[in-house]
Amino acid sequence: MVRTQIQLPEEQYRRLRRWAGRLGVSLSEAVRRCLAEHLAQEEATPSREERVRAALAVCGKYADPKGPSRVAADHDRHLAEAYRR
User: Fold this and answer.
1) By the number of CB atoms within 10 A of the CB, which of 57, 64, 71, 75 ranks highest?
2) What's the CATH number for 1-45?
């Protein structure tokens, strides 16, 4: 492990101490857990670039060879479905 030092606002420090106390862990362990959770969430969230690529991949996907369809009227639903994948 690498030793590091941080400065926290007083309120953040108090809240962290209370949380660490409830968990029965050290302040260092509480900080490690917070950081691990934040990094995991950040990595799981697609970047703006990935979201744009997903949206562009949907363009034209629902074209109907028979003519006009309801894609324009339902575009929000189609995009929502694409983002859930």
Assistant:
1) 71
2) 1.10.1220
